[in-house]
Amino acid sequence: MARPTIQDVAREAGVALGTVSNVLNHPNRVRSSTKKRVQNAMETLGFTPNQSARLLAGGESTMLGLVVPRLTHGYSLQIVSGVQREAERYGHHVWIANAADDVAAMAVCIQQFLSAQVAGLVIQSFDGHPLRNMAVPSRTALSCMDVQGSEPGYFAVADSQAEGTLVAEHLIAAGARHIAVLGISKHRAHQDRAQGIASVAQQSLEVHFEFIEEGDWCSASDGYELGERLAARQKSERPDALLALSDVLAVGAIAGVQAAGLQVPDDMLVAGCDGNPLAWTGGVPLTTVVPSGYEVGRRAVQQIMEQFDLAKLGELTGEPAPRVVDVHQAIVRPFLLPRESTGAMQKHGAKPDLNVGAYL
Amino acid sequence: MARPTIQDVAREAGVALGTVSNVLNHPNRVRSSTKKRVQNAMETLGFTPNQSARLLAGGESTMLGLVVPRLTHGYSLQIVSGVQREAERYGHHVWIANAADDVAAMAVCIQQFLSAQVAGLVIQSFDGHPLRNMAVPSRTALSCMDVQGSEPGYFAVADSQAEGTLVAEHLIAAGARHIAVLGISKHRAHQDRAQGIASVAQQSLEVHFEFIEEGDWCSASDGYELGERLAARQKSERPDALLALSDVLAVGAIAGVQAAGLQVPDDMLVAGCDGNPLAWTGGVPLTTVVPSGYEVGRRAVQQIMEQFDLAKLGELTGEPAPRVVDVHQAIVRPFLLPRESTGAMQKHGAKPDLNVGAYL
DNA sequence: TTGAAAGCGCTAACAG
DNA sequence: CTGTTAGCGCTTTCAA
User: Fold this and answer.
1) Could you tell me which residues are beta bridge partners of residue B96?
2) Chain B: nearest CA to A317, how far in angstroms?
3) Which of A102, A339, B47, B254 is the most buried (most CB within 10 A)?
């Protein structure tokens, strides 16, 4: 029993083929009694419109394609969430393709979405990978996340540099005068953060910044060793604040500092970057700066909608495809989450408050 | 500039339309020099085949649709990962739709995939929701995860009951004689675990099981209170083991027990369920039982492939669509992760080992 | 290999 | 509202 077609529905309902099509596409052109009859026929036959045929005949897709480099990272999950929420607001639905940490796979995902005629394409770049040569024809609405766009196009990026600036300034405001920066890595976001910190350093000559080029950004034990080592220094040479470029590293550092017999935040302030809820489970709540993936995702979808509007406008005025000429860049500011590890308000309660079930 | 078509490519390459089609679908029917020429033409024109047209003309889709109730849960992420990995092995790609905790949205996601003519559909049920009435036509290969299937069809489920059994038996083997079970909830998986525990209880009359009908499975502070309260009992009435139905609860319980002045595991064993990496960050590594979402996802895809094979066979022998009559159920066994909270081998080292960056 | 042609299921546009 | 028709881009088939 092959799939029922619009034709079968028409026969079943005793109406013309065109009427069924109208029920689907222009419901108000059809008398409601007829509409009912047709809808019943669809129900009894278990009819599902063939999207391929609709698209081919000139219909408009409503799907948005979202390509992420990986789904095992909280930031990407936030993006997914933001994209979905915003897309829903505009009546669009989202399909997600996961490139599983493989640049080549990413290109395939993009091609497949294009093949499938998605209305718009939202792509999170691969650690700043420019996505050039992935050849998205200008006809498809596109927004790239987490790339600095130098070419014409739409981009939504988290302001990593501002993340660094924000924590650094917070530490200084909290009284730090000798800040050790941990976790320098080749990772794009980390380098940007470091740069933001450096710019604060230049303007705060009374504060000594020490950039420590060691340790892996994703290993807590590296943080532990660094923290222990720095805490063991003589008081005069010892930093009074640690700024880790990732939360995982920061949590390790806190443990290391404590192991060396010092108190956080009393003897040493510690702050991280990432807004990684995992880090919130440690003994001392960690001050951190949060790049809002959620907001980045939302902005990207807004850019898609902007392109839809432009295209619609172009159609009305009869102009041809108004090729994108400008660089549209939405830069999303991070926010600071001040907590006890830098002496912020919240006191360390007895009860663990790791309400993290939602994340895993 | 509209999208280039197969026709444009043919003109550019100076070959017939049919030849281009052959390059796409039957590359070995074309001389390689001609093939090269056609491929170059595709490149220069930026040609992407129109999937709608291909499907409409009788082509086969290679995409698999995966519908999950939510993407913010580790178990679902594991499923995604398993589905992807296995699909890739068979040369299929996956699109993911996230129902964002909404049953109605789930039905929409399914419809959209069907509309898009996916080759197969993999669905994770909504907390055991039967997925009936979501009307998947029998033509599409389908596998449902986390539903007990009573009707004909393909199902892949984690054996929640075995999870309970496994931890309970482990605790008894570790010496427990009075086990308090925490976190009974309406959640399907939790009830199944409780049932598994109950069956162990029936067979181990020398062990006293105490089911505590309190506390929320997802709140660590509930665990804390329960742990503290139970630990405060007189030694004769005090359980010597806590079995929490979730890891979050278990971690809270450990903290509570310690707050009451007892040691884990020396004075009280504690075990959880979920395999939630978050819980691995606590002071005492938690023994837990892990439902393998990864494996469930893999099995589901294998079931899809099975259906493909059957369909292909049916085509060859000229039989009509061989309607699914049997209940095919893949039950995935959990595995135990024995750690220090139940006195397992690993000693609690000084360095924190929370290598969890991969999860968030 | 080529060129021509049928048809997949649907939309949009037409005259009635 | 009906009934008809052209055509979307492609695959497949067939005779040359």
Assistant:
1) A96, B66
2) 17
3) B254
pTM of the model: 0.84
In three-state secondary structure terms, B42 is helix
Helix (H, G, I), strand (E, B), or coil: what is residue B271? strand
Task: Give the mutation candidate from B84, B351, B355, B359 for the A interface (greatest A CB count, under 10 A).
Answer: B351
Partners of residue A182 on adjacent β-strands:
A212, A244
CA distance B175 to chain A (A): 28
Q: How far is the CA of B133 from the CAs of A123, A238, A341, B70, in angstroms?
A: 34, 67, 52, 20
Cβ distance A281 to B277 less than 8 Å, yes or no, reads no
Minimum CA–CA partner of B259 in chain A: A350
Task: State how far the Cα of A99 lies from the Cα of A169, in Å rounded to an integer.
Answer: 37
Give the nucleotide nearest to A37 (CA→C1'): D1
Please list, in sequence order, all residues whose beta carbon lies within 8 angstroms of the beta carbon of residue B166, skipping any fewer than 6 positions away: B196, B289, B334, B335, B336
- DSSP of B104-138, one letter per residue? HHHHHHHHHHHHTT-SEEEEE-STT---TTS---T
Distance between the alpha carbon (CA) of A10 and the C1' atom of C5, Å: 28
Q: Are A225 and A163 in contact (CB under 8 A)?
A: no
Cis peptide preceding B320, ω within 30 of 0: no
State the Cα–Cα distance between residues A302 and A123, nearest whole angstrom.
14
Residues A163-209 have pLDDT tens digits of 999 999 999 999 999 999 998 887 888 899 999 999 999 999 999 99
Taking only the tens place, the pLDDT of each residue in A302-350 is 999 999 988 887 766 665 556 677 889 999 999 888 888 998 754 433 3
Most distant pair of Cα atoms in chain B: their distance? 91
Round to whole Å and give the CA distance between B140 and A243. 54
- Joined together, the tokens standing for residue A2 give 């092959």
Q: Is A46 near strand C, with its CB below 7 A from some atom of it?
A: no
Q: Alpha-carbon distance A29 to A45, whole Å?
A: 23
Which residues, including other chains, have CB under 8 Å from residue A15's CB and lie 6 or more apart? A34, A37, A38
Question: Residue A321, Cβ neighbours under 10 Å: how many?
Answer: 14
Candidates A75, A89, A360, partner chain B, best to mutate (most B CBs within 10 A): A360
pLDDT given for residue A349 in this prediction: 39
